[in-house]
Amino acid sequence: MSEARTVLVTGGNRGIGFAIAQEFLARGHRVAVTARSGEGPAGSLTVHADVTDAESIDAAFATVEEKLGPVEVVIANAGVTRDTLLMRMSDDDFTAVIDTNLTGAFRVVKRASKGMLKARYGRIVLISSVVGLLGSAGQVNYAASKSGLVGIARSVTRELGSRGITANVVAPGFIQTDMTDALPEEQQKQYLASIPAGRFATPEEVAKVVAWIASDEAGYISGAVIPVDGGLGMGH
């Protein structure tokens, strides 16, 4: 295993973020999660923060640095949806999703980069979505925010790549969560028909890819988009 690192996962209190935090813990790393409410998995440090507020991000990093040491791996996972068709989407529906999913990731990456530059080591992983490159009716705001993460990762790679820092994007497809379980059976069947693998992913499958791209083994991969989507978004 790579040496133990200090890892921060935003939105680590549920779903994919929770599974990512669990995976890093299982691999022996020191793990902190940010959450607006709720807690991360047992063994992690939970710090309450809101990615739309730069001061709260700064305070969260300060707490993690004090208790676990400088953040070496950051997973920008916090995200929201406000799905509605373009004609009905308000300016606020659009900007609120961008502010959390895209500008929120920028705030987190900017704050994390300070310590990474000093250490000349860092792993930045941005959690996008197959929708970011494939598009999705009713998700103009969400798709825009998730595709924007690719631009962040590639620009950060060009800026910081010579300092031992990588920045990559992981793009999950449909994941088995409370949200997909609640979908009507007919809709679930439709979704499954569009996925070559013929099933939804487990959150753990996404978490293992994230842990690998953040490992020392993946030190020469940067600016990449890694799909974990069962073949749904091929060619995008």
Tertiary shape: globular
Q: What are the low-pLDDT stretches, counting only 5+ consecutive residues below 50?
A: none
Q: What kind of sheet is the major sheet? A: 7 strands, parallel
- The H-and-E topology, N to C, reads as EHEEHEHEHHEHHHE
Oligomer: single chain
What is the overall pLDDT average? 96
Instruction: State the CATH superfamily name.
Output: NAD(P)-binding Rossmann-like Domain
**Under CATH, the topology is which?**
Rossmann fold
Distance between the termini: 32 Å
Share of helix among residues? Answer: 40-55%
User: What would you report as the Rg, rounded to the nearest angstrom?
Assistant: 17 Å
Individual helix count: 8
Structural class: alpha/beta
- Sequence of strands across the biggest β-sheet: 3-2-1-4-5-6-7
CATH class, please? Alpha Beta
Q: How does this model look, in words?
A:
The chain has 236 residues and is α/β, with parallel strands linked by helices. It is built from 8 helices and 7 strands; from the N terminus they run βαββαβαβααβαααβ. The chain has a 7-stranded parallel β-sheet with strand order 3-2-1-4-5-6-7, with helices on both faces. It is globular. The protein starts with 5 loop residues before the first strand and ends in an 8-residue tail after the last strand. The model has no long low-confidence stretch (mean pLDDT 96).
